[in-house]
Amino acid sequence: MAFVVLCTGGITFANAAPASNAASHTASKGDKVEFKSSLPVTQEEIAAVDVLGEICPKLIGNNKKFDAGYERLLKDLMPNIDQPVLALKALADDAEYQGKLKEAREDANRASVQDNREVCQDILNYPANSKKTKK
Predict the structure, then answer these.
(1) pLDDT tens for residues 16-47?
(2) How far apart are the first and last CA of the chain?
(3) Rounded CA gap, 84 and 66, in Å?
(4) How far is CA 13 from the centre of its chain?
(5) Rounded CA gap, 106 and 113, in Å?
(6) Is-above-0.70 flag for pTM?
(7) 81 close to 24: Cβ distance less than 8 angstroms
(8) Helix pair angle (64-77, 113-124), 10° resolution
(9) What is the DSSP string of 52-118?
(10) Among 21, 43, 65, 101, which is most exposed with the fewest C-beta within 10 angstroms?
């Protein structure tokens, strides 16, 4: 599962193909924008990061540096989405994504607290100048 990859291999999505221009939308909770099919990564990868956004504040505390790293990571995962955090929230209404999210939560529960904390630290230190976030 994607979360296990995150735990064991670090957070690397360098091989992701670019998203199509159809994905460059600002998604909000009320939008019915269909952007899933144009994402450069799998829903499993996005769900794994979504779960980390849920559990990391509990493991490392609320932290603005984590929030910034989390947003940079989401932007790398969804490079043509104007507001990836809102796009992630828009996926919450999608039944298929909910299944992936449930699996990611189960994976996180199976991982040790230390493994989860290490991945949270990776996000906390996610580079501001990663190749994908450079303009």
Answers:
(1) 333 333 333 334 444 433 445 555 678 899 99
(2) 31
(3) 16
(4) 11
(5) 13
(6) no
(7) yes
(8) 80
(9) HHHHHHHHH-S-HHHHHHHHHHHHHHSTT-S-HHHHHHHGGG-HHHHHHHHHHHHHHHHS-HHHHHH
(10) 21
Is 13:77 a contact under the CB 8 Å cutoff? yes
Token pair for residue 87?
């796009």
Per-residue pLDDT tens over the stretch 71-114: 999 999 888 888 898 888 888 888 999 999 999 999 999 999 99
Q: How far apart are CA 54 and CA 94, in angstroms?
A: 18
Lookup result for tokens 């989390």 = 70
Number of Cβ within a 10 Å radius of residue 122? 18
Longest dimension (CA), the chain: 39
Name residue, tokens 């499993």.
Answer: 44
Amino acid at the residue 89: K
Residue 16 tokens read as 């992701």
